[in-house]
Amino acid sequence: MSAFQSLFTDHGDPFMPFPENTPTPDDLPSLSAAEIAALPVELLAILQREIDERLKRDKAAKTRFDGALTVRYATRAAEERQAAGKDTGTIRFDDGDFTVVADLPKRVDWDQDRLAAMVERIRAAGDDPAQYVDIAFKVPERKYAAWPDAIRAGFEPARTVRPGTLKIEIVPQGGDQ
């Protein structure tokens, strides 16, 4: 931070403070872009720095909070998911007067070399591989689930399923419909 900026860390310095009506980051949503653009460049620089600092702080707070929700609910979510016979997906359970919604998305990876070999076998058999796979050698999960068992068995060695990132939301009961 330059010596100039450090003088204005509290929207002013002891020798030439900004007026009391100087906008803060909290005021910006109520101002038009033109009004903000008309502010003195020194104030724009201060606001920009304050907003960047808030974003960093808020991102760190969100990361810490999401981690705390994971500590609190991940085990119960896994138990509920197992009881429901699900490896991934959304489950709901109550905690006091709230419903906890825990979503563990499914992420599927496909071995590109094995998929390419299967595409060639399908072509050699006279079928159109585009009916089964996308040309980018990615297999949409809906298509995979709709395939006959014989086709799926050939692709199984190219498929890896891993869980995504757990997302947890707390909502008042009755507010999740």
Could you characterize the architecture of this molecule?
This protein is α+β, with helices and mostly antiparallel strands and 177 residues long. It folds into two domains: 3-85; 87-177, no CATH class. It is 45% helix and 17% strand. The chain has a three-stranded antiparallel sheet, covered by helices on one side. A two-stranded antiparallel ribbon has the order 3-4. A hairpin with a 2-residue loop joins β1 (89-95) and β2 (98-104). The longest helix is centred in the middle third of the chain and has 43 residues, at 41-83. It is elongated and about 80 Å long. Residues 1-9 have low confidence and may be disordered.
Summarize the structure in short.
The chain has helices spanning 3-7, 33-37, 41-83, 112-124, 141-146, 149-155; strands at residues 89-95, 98-104, 106-110, 159-163, 167-172. By secondary structure, the chain is α+β, with helices and mostly antiparallel strands. The radius of gyration is 27 Å and the shape is elongated.
